[in-house]
Amino acid sequence: MNYNLGKIYHGFKLHREEKVEEINSIARVFIHEKTGAKLLHMENDDSNKVFAIGFKTPPSDDTGVAHILEHSVLCGSRKFPTKEPFVELIKGSLNTFLNAMTFSDKTIYPLASKNEKDFFNLMDVYLDAVFYPNIYNTKEILMQEGWHYELENAEDELTYKGVVYNEMKGAFSSPDGVLMRGIQKSLFEHNTYGYESGGDPEFIPDLTEEEFLGFHSKYYHPSNSYIFLYGDGNLDERLAFINDNYLNNFEKKDIDAEILPEKPFKEMKEVVTEYSISNEDNEDEKTFMALNFVTGECTNDELYISLSVLEYLLLETQGAPLKQAILDANLGKDVYGSFDNGILQPVFSIVLKNSDASKKEEFKNVVFDTLKSLVKNGIDKKLIEACINITEFKLREADFQGMPKGLFYYMTAMDSWLHDGDPLIHLKYEKNMEKIKKALTSNYFEQLIEKYILNNNHSSLIVLAPKRGLADEKDKKLRTGLMEYKENLSVEEIQDIINETKSLINRQNTPDPEEILETIPVLSIDDIDEKVEELGVIEEDASGVKLLHHDAFTSKIAYLDFMFDSRTIAQEDISYLSLLTTLLGKINTKTYSYVDLSNEILINTGGIYFKNEVYGDSKDVLRYSTYLEGHCSVVVDRVPRALEILADIIKNTSFEDKKRIRELIRVLISRIEMKLMDRGHQVATTRLGAYFSPAYEYIEKTSGYEYYKFLKEIENNFDDRIDTVILKFQAIMNKVFNKNSLLVAVTGKDEEVNAVKKNISEILEVLSDEEVQINKYGFHEENKNEGMLTPSNVQYVAKGYNYKKLGYEYTGKLLVLKTIIGMDYLWNKVRVQGGAYGAFANIVRSGNFMFASYRDPNIKETLKTYDNAAKYLDNFTTTDREMLKYIIGTISELDMQLTPSMAGDAAVSYYIRRISKVDRQQERKEVLSTTVKDINNFSKLVADVMKMNYIVVLGNDGKIKENKDVFKNLENVFN
């Protein structure tokens, strides 16, 4: 259908239409005549359709009202009055993406689906949620999702509870998170960016119901909305649906959501603040520092991309000049940068970790002196070329690792659109890339440094210092305050809180009536493809080496993995192997310095890196495969050069630069510490799995907490240990890089495969051809039941075992069990009632079965919930319609949208783990045929797994010590 400028289509007037070559789409900008709602449509042949609606939501305090509202509108609406429509959609739709997100200045509600009927169903639920939520007639929604006083009995301790409250307690446990929040606060004293849109736990309980409802009433209106449609499908039908069912019910409203720019500072602002470490921790080398600069406005399309390139150039590449100068000055152990271009006035930050507050002035001086030197002497042109090339490669590749392309494009458009800018300006990147390429023959980046950093007073220096026991101090203050508040309440007021608590619990415990659940639209079984998607590999020969070819269109990009069986390495050396993989490509070779090597990689490829991979066998619980993998993504005509570089790393890596090795170990430790605080559920489940799974034990020793301790031991004794460590590296390289243990995987078409075959001799010539010996690794099962102590404000609670070891077998029906337990039982018990940010079940083909929670205020209560899961399953009953939803939700997860590179990785994984297409088809058949009785029958399996009582809890040291009877061992993580 052709669309004409100025014409009105179902209430939407077309203001603009143009082809955006960079994303192969026709873009149309509409304005809804009656309400002023803005709509951007991107037409293309992508079957993964995206809808999103967003609102400008500038907070004016730290109560987190925007964040709490984002949660709350998805808790029932006019047409869909179930308590959790969002969960019902996850259970029963074929969505490829479904979420909501709160930013500093906006809240967005995006979804994606490849199924047309499903797409309209999801769109309907989301539009009804944002415009007609049940928050106005159900005060328990704010209590549940935001905060409430919790008191079940008059003699109990009064506490705060709420999903967002606990989510943000977890977020504020991470020093990196505290620092990022402090940066915005320091730079924006008089506009919305100085407030915490997610909510500061200290101020969340200040939010009143009146303010909460007023925020929705003010900002959640079509006149303040930014609507997005992407992909194939009939635009006319979509516009008619949105207009007739929603926008036509509203009148235009004048909404004051303007965000005024912060006025420039006259001088740099300095801020000193604190974060918590445990009482046993040493405060030395635990300070964070950040230099931050406000840089223009987000509607400046050239700056938007050029400062991103500059940040990568100065702080992210191997040997990045500013990062290297800071490390060379021994100011700290890790340096990174960030460029936040998603706000009105983008912020450029230089972050130093593991330093001391006494080095503040030296940090500032080194940064400014280094940048002045770069301006005076010029930036290495080869480095500029490398950074421009990798930026361009990533833009053209458009591989967002599972995020729908349309969602990425919407978020990019919103960066300018929200502030009355051109929504297409950042998507049309070709013009600005051409401007930036002039930096190869000019002082383009040097001028940016001078203007936006050296001569920019709108800046701040933040010092975030550690303080022992700060979390306990704050907790004690909170508990004391609540105790005093309770003491001043009358008997009637206490009873009111008890009644409200019981009312909330009663609502949470009461299932939605069947007629209410039936308001949520459901697909039919006929909407599901009974056949699995083809995800296989073709075995081919490449000069005597087995090559696995996953056939996929990749726009002439070859995704390559050179996979070396690492069981040639002795079991006691696997942690050394893991460290080696981190170093390869980041240290000198005999041919290149690590800086020059990085430049060569970025100029010629989309990246080269090495990684350890573990593949648990699908048939044998004790069997697993391990590989050291050299990965490369490269345009097909650069394959010969890419293989030359890979061969050089394999043959000529030099370990003589011990200072560089120490630097990289320190950075690695820093990044693992960040994971320990931000993603504790991953750490806890890996540690738990290592108790009973040989594959998980390997993962624990190569990337988990055990590996962290290994790295810390080397760092603490570096001078004494490094020579021995280097000998280990050399011995490992001699063994692992062997032609006879090599498997090559290529994702692409025949052209890409042939390019690899033609040039594989580059790799084979540098490999050993000796007979290989594959080691058999031992395993000793041990239930350690550890409490892992950190200064976090929350817990990550994990429990599980391997059901195959207990005599059970895998069936696809277990995946439906996973959906039911995760999206019904654990969601309600651990998140909704327990106040945790989340909980999940992980049940896999190899037999591993785990429950885990994250950002959880509880320990024993959550473990009790896990133990009661078997009883829940015993009594589980539901309608055929609800059972169908669980099955559809399970299929949706199985059919997750994969990019070509992800599909290639999955196909290779299936091959190594011995999962055939027949196995996958059988699994799908079992999912589709799952009954209520099948779910009931899993009760014994779950009971038996829980009876093994294998537990790991990572979290607040005080809380874990209060519950020490749960554990056999307590482990202080950072000491």
UniProtKB/TrEMBL annotation:
Please give the InterPro entries that the UniProt record associates with this protein: Metalloenz_LuxS/M16 (IPR011249), Pept_M16_N (IPR011765), Peptidase_M16_C (IPR007863), Peptidase_M16C_assoc (IPR013578), PreP_C (IPR055130)
Q: Which SUPFAM superfamilies match?
A: LuxS/MPP-like metallohydrolase
Looking up Gene3D superfamilies in the UniProt record yields: Metalloenzyme, LuxS/M16 peptidase-like
Q: Tell me which SMART domains the record gives.
A: M16C_associated (SM01264)
Gene Ontology process terms (BP): protein processing
List, alphabetically, the Pfam families matched: M16C_assoc (PF08367), Peptidase_M16 (PF00675), Peptidase_M16_C (PF05193), PreP_C (PF22516)
Recorded GO MF terms? metal ion binding; metalloendopeptidase activity
Q: Where is the Peptidase M16C associated domain?
A: 464-714
Q: Which domain of life is it from?
A: Bacteria
Annotated protein name in UniProt: Insulinase family protein
